[in-house]
Amino acid sequence: MKFMDAHVHLKDRNDEVLDVDALLQEMDASDIERVFLMPADSRRSENERMLKEVQGHADRFILFAFVNPYHPDCVEWFEEAVKHRGVRGLKLHPVLDAYPADRAYMLDPLLEVCDRYHLHCIIHCTSDAPNSSPLQMERTACRWPNVTFQMAHMGGCWLANDAIKVCQRNQNIYLDGSTVSLSAVKRAIAACPDRFLMGTDVPFYHFEMEKLKMKLAVSDPVLFEKVTYGNMRDLIAERGLEL
After folding, report:
1. What string of DSSP letters covers 144-207?
2. In contact, 103 and 130? CB cutoff 8 Å
3. What is the DSSP letter of 218?
4. 0.90 cut: is pTM over it?
């Protein structure tokens, strides 16, 4: 059986090198067919490194630019990367880069690019108040109904129930279960089976850890295939994320 992973970073794991070749080896060992890949932070140098190193592997990696909206040329750089360098989505981290997840004047120029090119946006969304709650993300997603949004970590430890409610009432929001508790994943899949995506947050975690969590969360084989493969496959097709 093959799997897809909606949350992977190109970054070494402590003292262990996890470059593209090593990442592909881990993916092959764990039957991971394809991943959403992004740098570990929004430094332009890390984005450039990723774009350079993954050349020739479009069949395995769908690329997300990790963008800091404070950077003065971020919109122009992002659109150029979409048009000419294979980027198919946007990663935002309101906690790491210190801005509210619903700050319209900062985020809307980037999301306008996502809207124009039919892209997918991943937003870090944990219990890290005041910048990154599910309700803040919902306000942003409601402004851009034709953009799909992925709630990375779906509210973390304390706000998973809020995340589930937000997903239920917004058809353009997907839940990403990386680093989330088993009980929260079970609740999310029961409530939103069509918009739950398996994610590991590699290299901070391991593919096999998340696969085990999913096996513990889902006993029905049809539903298991859906949340570990089918939903992401369908999202890729609907958004046209394949090059």
Report:
1. -TTSEEEEETTTTTT-HHHHHHHHHH-TTEEEE-TT--HHHHHHHHHH-GGGEE----BTSS-H
2. no
3. -
4. yes
**What is the average per-residue pLDDT within 54-59?**
95
Report the candidate in 73, 55, 61 with the shortest Cα–Cα distance to residue 35. Answer: 61
CATH architecture for residues 3-239? Alpha-Beta Barrel (3.20)
Q: Is the Cβ–Cβ distance between 148 and 239 less than 8 Å?
A: yes
Cβ atoms < 10 Å from Cβ of 237: 10
The DSSP bridge partners found for residue 89 are: 64, 120
Burial 29-41 (b: 16+ CB within 10 A, else e): ebebbbbbbbbbb
Say if residue 160's pLDDT is above 90.
yes
Mean pLDDT of the chain: 96
Given a contact cutoff of 8 angstroms between Cβ atoms, the answer to whether 110 and 81 are in contact is: no
- Strand ranges inside the chain, DSSP E: 3-10, 32-39, 61-66, 87-92, 120-124, 148-152, 173-176, 196-197
DSSP one-letter code for 13: B
Coil, helix or strand for 41?
coil
How do the domains of the chain map onto residue ranges? 3-239
Burial grade of 51 (CB within 10 A; 0-12, 13-18, 19 or more): middle
